[in-house]
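Alpha/beta hydrolase
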Amino acid sequence: MLKLRIGAIIFLLANFFVIAQETTYELVENLPYYEEAILNADAYIKERCKLDVYFPKNGSEAPTVVWFHGGGLENGEKHIPEGLLNKGVIVVAVNYRMHPKVKNPVYIEDAAAAVAWAFNNIAKYNGSPKKIFVTGHSAGGYLASMVGLDKSYLNKHDIDADRIAGLIPFSGHTITHFTIRKEMGIEGTRPIIDKYAPLYHVRNDAPPMLLITGNREKELLGRYEETAYFYRMMKVVEHPDIELMELDGYGHDMVYPAVPLLLNFVKEQTKKTE
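Structure:
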């Protein structure tokens, strides 16, 4: 009996020290995601097309969250949402070029280049290219959807968009983005579905998706409804793994309560790859 007790104590202590051992993280900032020749040919690319990598120093093959900031494709700065810190995931926070210095589809091309960088380099930061999730808020959610649904952008980098482990747009347009419509001289209240709309690229073989918006009465004009229509069309084509969540009590500023849902989605999808 004494031996059993001593053994149990040793087991508990060993597990306590494993649990108590905190994962340490490192932040590497302002890494360019285009090749040097491209950077040197354009000052604005050299200024904006950079990303930060926040990663656990101990461990390996961690899931990666590629995060695109919002700001209507006209403003904003790369950042890591607080809720993604110290959560066992790598975060790749991306800057991209913006209107009016550039016009569509430059924003989407930059987003695709950043995702391609993650696939090609994330193993250096203890990540796995099999566990790359693409997300972002508002304009960032739109970019995440476009990169994952229109396969042509990642194809230019010899990467199949279906390798993405999951897409999690936060309150992103599923119609053509209002800044792109503005560039075409179209009013923001006139919805357009062309090749620059995620809705245009509905397909049943797209990566798993978690769609999150704020409450339909508090969101930006029609954001919940257009997302709900996208969800319905994906179900019509029998996409096997898509979910829509509406956050009651929150409007367009819904990142804080959405991040735990993202992390749970990452956890569940990652289990499927292991």
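The domain at 25-273 is CATH 3.40.50.1820 (Rossmann fold).
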